């Protein structure tokens, strides 16, 4: 597992997401209006993430590719293959991001050498962070607190990870992309 600091002026993931959604503060997304006021929270999460797919998929994909080639390259070499499209996640307060809460991406066929690039577009801590076990099979999940400007790189195939109920008042918006590196991460 690796936590990397990067230059947010060069890799402006947050600005890209804010412009796409037309909001000034992603952490307050839960207070923004949606088409149907009484939608359940999970519906609102999916609606916001669908807005990201609709507005910034190409721009974000280009940012992630540059990030992998320019920043991660020195750690893992050039990518052998890269996921075709970045995945966006929105977790509003008082919800779980998805079910089941903890999982391994190997469940869906991800190879153990594949790395997950998990980038929060807002600061995350505690219950709105991603929770990851310290080694495959340990089941000792803990939150990976990150500032905006930090990226988490980990093997999501063998390592269990997921979200817990966000008991705070800050919405988490994040994006993740997987790639197969040419060099194993130390
Ligand atoms: Fe996953």
Could you say how many structural domains there are in total? 1
Could you name the CATH topology? Jelly Rolls
Q: Which ions and ligands are bound to the chains?
A: fe (ii) ion
Strand content: 15-25%
* Whole-number mean pLDDT: 93
Q: Count the beta strands.
A: 10
CATH H-level superfamily: q2cbj1_9rhob like domain
- Residue stretches low in confidence (pLDDT < 50, at least 5 long) are none
Largest sheet geometry:
6 strands, antiparallel
Please give the CATH architecture.
Sandwich
In terms of structural class, how would the helical and strand content be classed?
Answer: alpha+beta
Fraction of residues in helix? 10-25%
Instruction: State the end-to-end CA separation.
Output: 9 Å
What is the helix/strand order? EHHEEEEEEEEE
CATH class, anyone?
Mainly Beta
Rg, Cα atoms, Å: 16 Å
**Looking at the structure, what is the overall shape?**
globular
**Total DSSP helices:** 2
Written overview of the protein:
- The protein has one domain (about 1-180): Sandwich (Jelly Rolls), CATH 2.60.120.
- Helix content is about 25%, strand content about 25%.
- The protein starts with a strand and ends in a 5-residue tail after the last strand.
- The strands form two sheets. Strands 1, 2, 3, 5, 8 and 10 form a six-stranded antiparallel beta sheet that branches. It has a four-stranded antiparallel beta sheet with strand order 4-9-6-7, with no helix packed on it.
- The protein has two helices and ten strands, in the order E-H-H-E-E-E-E-E-E-E-E-E.
- Helix 1 (about 15-20) runs antiparallel to helix 2 (about 40-75).
- The chain binds fe (ii) ion.
- Fe (ii) ion binds near residues 103 and 161.
């Amino acid at each position: 597992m690796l936590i990397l600091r990067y230059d947010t002026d060069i890799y402006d993931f947050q600005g890209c997401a804010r412009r796409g959604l037309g909001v000034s503060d992603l952490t307050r997304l839960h207070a923004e209006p949606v088409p149907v006021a009484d939608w359940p929270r999970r519906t609102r999460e999916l609606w916001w993430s669908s807005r990201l797919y609709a507005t910034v998929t190409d721009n974000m994909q280009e940012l992630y590719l540059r990030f992998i080639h320019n920043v991660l390259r020195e750690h893992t070499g050039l990518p052998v293959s890269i996921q075709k499209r970045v995945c966006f996640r929105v977790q509003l307060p008082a919800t779980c991001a998805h079910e089941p809460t903890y999982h391994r991406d190997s469940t869906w066929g991800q190879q153990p050498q594949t790395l997950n690039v998990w980038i929060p577009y807002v600061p995350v801590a505690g219950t709105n962070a991603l929770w990851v076990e310290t080694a495959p099979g340990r089941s000792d999940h803990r939150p990976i607190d990150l500032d905006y400007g930090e990226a988490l790189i980990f093997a999501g195939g063998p390592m269990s990870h997921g979200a817990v109920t966000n008991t705070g008042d800050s919405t988490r918006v994040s994006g993740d992309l997987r790639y197969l590196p040419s060099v194993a991460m130390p």
